[in-house]
Amino acid sequence: MSGKKIDGKKIAEEKETVLKEKIDEMERPPNLHTIFAGEDEGSKVYLGVKNRGCERVGIETETHRYGADVKKEVLIDKIHELNEDDKVDGILVQMPLPRDMDAKNLIKEIDPIKDVEGLHPKNLGRLMIGDEEIIPCTPKGILTMLDYEDIGLKGKETCVVSHSTIVGKPMVITLLNRDATVHVVHEFTDRMEHHTRKAEILIAAAGVPHLITEYMIAPESVIIDVGMNRLESGELVGDVEYEKCKEKAKKITPVPGGVGPTTVLSLLENTYEAALKLRS
Question: From the candidates 5, 20, 43, 72, which is the catalytic residue?
């Protein structure tokens, strides 16, 4: 077990080495396609991180770029084309989409096997009944970290600060699948600290800079910070007051260098697993 800081970068590097060895043994490397619409700067950064990750492990990747004025029907037609292409193993719709375009309407058009983010309604439904054939990337990355650090979940008091479809809801389901006791709080929760202080494991994914203070966490708790918030100064911070909370916590993830690398790792692993299924 490592020290107090949970080093997501180190964990991802170790597991990417194993994944690359598996991919090197394949007759043909996995192939991941991304649909990118608009000019969101954060999305551009993530796209670059994802593409570099694919390059490190040997996954082929291609990005289909569209302007902010693209029509939904054009993106759906592209998804259908990629669904029918036997050379394509994974499809990812980069969010956020422009003009408040509903991502759910696009994701449900992806072949569930090629849905490497695990957000298709069928894949989320399977998750609900304990069939974890594919787990959404951020929750999977968090589970990878907890397992690496030998942090058990059975019976543990956990609190998830999010009820989003991408992180919060699937995180709750995967925790329940592992017999954790789960509390969920969000922007409409009164007295949030009443719940967070009870948590042996706290997962913050609200997207609010420094929402979680040292007074809101339990002593010797494990803190997983999913937040990636850019301040006006340009500094990148999480949802947790890291410097103060790390003195009180047993384990804590930094921002950056925490959940981000294991989230990308999970996307790479999901793409590899999709390729195996499609070629079996």
Answer: 43
> Per-residue pLDDT tens for 3-56?
599 999 999 999 999 999 999 999 999 999 999 999 888 788 889 999 999 999
- In one-letter notation, the amino acid at residue 185 is V
From residue 259, alpha-carbon distances to 27, 64, 141, 178 in Å are 31, 26, 7, 20
Q: Contact, 75 vs 37, CB < 8 A? A: yes
d(C-alpha 188, C-alpha 151), whole Å:
30
Question: pTM of the entire structure?
Answer: 0.95
Question: Which residue among the candidates 15, 78, 94, 114 is catalytic per the annotation?
Answer: 94
Q: Which domains does the chain have, with CATH numbers?
A: 29-111 (3.40.50.10860), 137-260 (3.40.50.720)
Q: Is 38 left (phi over 0), alpha (psi -120 to 50) or beta?
A: left
55: tokens are: 């390059």
Q: Is 22 one of the catalytic residues?
A: no
Phi–psi pair at 212, nearest 5 degrees: -95, 115
94 is an active site residue: yes
Question: Would you tell me how many other CB atoms lie within 10 Å of the CB of residue 174?
Answer: 21
Q: How far is CA 237 from the centre of its chain?
A: 17
Query: What burial letters (b/e) apply to 230-253, b meaning 16+ CB within 10 Å?
Result: eeeeeeebbbbbbeebbeebbbbb
pLDDT of residue 3: 53
At 209-249, the pLDDT tens digits run 999 999 999 999 999 999 988 888 989 899 999 999 999 99
Active site residue 43: yes
